[in-house]
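S.,

Sequence below, as promised.
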Amino acid sequence: MPLASLIKGQEIEDLPGMVRYYKVQMVKGGVKVHTGVEFTPALADQIKPDAIIVATGGALAIPSIKGIDKPIVLTTPALHKKAKPFLKLFGPVALSKLTKIWLPVGKNVVVIGTGLHGTEIGEFLTKRGRKVTLVDIADVPGEGTIEANFGMLKEWFDSKGVKLINGAKSIEITDTGVQYVDKDGGKVTLPADTVIPTRPLAASLDLFNKLKDKAPEVYAVGDCMEPKMIVDAVGTGFSTAREI
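The prediction came back faster than expected:
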């Protein structure tokens, strides 16, 4: 949630406020919270719970693209890894301001992907003075976004000179940028200092599958079951708790 807040900003969704709310409600409700502990099948055998809810989130995935190992590439897992220590130290609000002063990303950035994750990163970087181009094999942009929100974002992108290129084929990362074949069969080169490949979160049910025989009731909720929006994750958690 702090990482999502950093990328999304706090103008529309107050995610830090949402985290504070749940912390307060768990204290009021007497919920015991143990951090820094890995929940394993052996621990489940020891505790013998009546029910287990697995809410471990989706898995960040690296797309299979030629040149993905080039030095100019910054994958989203690597970006998240860089950000998390600073998030813990400064928090999302302060870090959001600090990233407008310094960011380990070049001035000219190509983001591969025009869906939810690609457009969020594109918006984040544009607000920090980067020249951004988004390119995707998908025929239309905005996959996974809320239609009305994407419409407003598209207008904002247009006003900032952010280009969205869809229907690209044979995308390849080079030492100096990205190459692709356009709809007319022509080869196009996009120069870049940094290339950020994105793809949707993947379901992550490994732990759920290891635990599903460890209690009378075992549930998977949120992105680990089916990656969607934050509101969907909250909804599945709520409905599952009511069912129990």
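The first helix runs from residue 2 to 8.

Coffee later?
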